[in-house]
Amino acid sequence: SGYQSMALSISNIQKIRRAVQQADTIFVQGPALISILAVWFGKRYKKTVIHYMHLIMWELYEKHIPRWTRKIIIPFFRSNILKGYNLCDVLIAPYKSLVDQMDQLGITVRKEVVPLGVDGTVFRPAKDKNEAKRKLGIEPEYMVVGYVGRISREKNVSVLCAAVQRLQEEHKILLLIVGSGTKREVNRLPKARNMMFTGFKKDVAPYYQAMDIFVMPS
Predict the structure, then answer these.
(1) Which of 23, 74, 132, 164 could bond 126 through an S-S bridge, CB–CB 3.0 to 4.6 Å?
(2) Number of neighbouring beta carbons within 10 Å of residue 16
(3) Could you tell me where the beta strands, DSSP code E, fall in 53-130?
(4) Cα distances (Å, whole numbers) of residue 68 to 59, 74, 81
(5) Is 157 helix (H, G, I), strand (E, B) or coil?
(6) Close Cβ partners of 18 (under 8 Å, ≥ 6 residues apart)
(7) Are 113 and 96 in contact, with CB atoms under 8 Å apart?
(8) pTM of the model
């Protein structure tokens, strides 16, 4: 997904084991080998393990492995990931329907819904939409369709780019993409006619304020 990979080595596994031993509580986030090891060592050393999840892990893996291997690899991942979830003490999800999905999958551990918070003093509509566009160098007559996030395969940003390409045939639309990713994933994106690609931005509020439509294509 563009994150740096952890080298699979005995020394790295031992580092994770020692870190878990020294901790009181293990908080796990993310569908990765380091997460799986943390859960496993947490159970082994009788630590409280809390796992935050916002997606079903094997659905993410499907985006990153060759199609011809999926019938073999995904059932293996699914079986072992379900076992890993059930080793945790608490699973935290940001929305109720994900908890319902976990119940249907046979995940029996305690689950809690903790919605993601938003700072309303920062993320609020612009007083003047046209001025918000001008500050970013965008002509106000453009309808701005935007995305904010990582550029990686599972985010489906290429689908958004292709959709905007079609809409631009009849409408004056500018596609605003705020975020970074690997050079390979960025180069895979279809190039819309009017497109602003900003890369990573620490302060994203002005970009949201300039958008007429925000799209989360994942």
Answers:
(1) 132
(2) 18
(3) 90-93, 110-113
(4) 16, 11, 21
(5) helix
(6) none
(7) yes
(8) 0.72
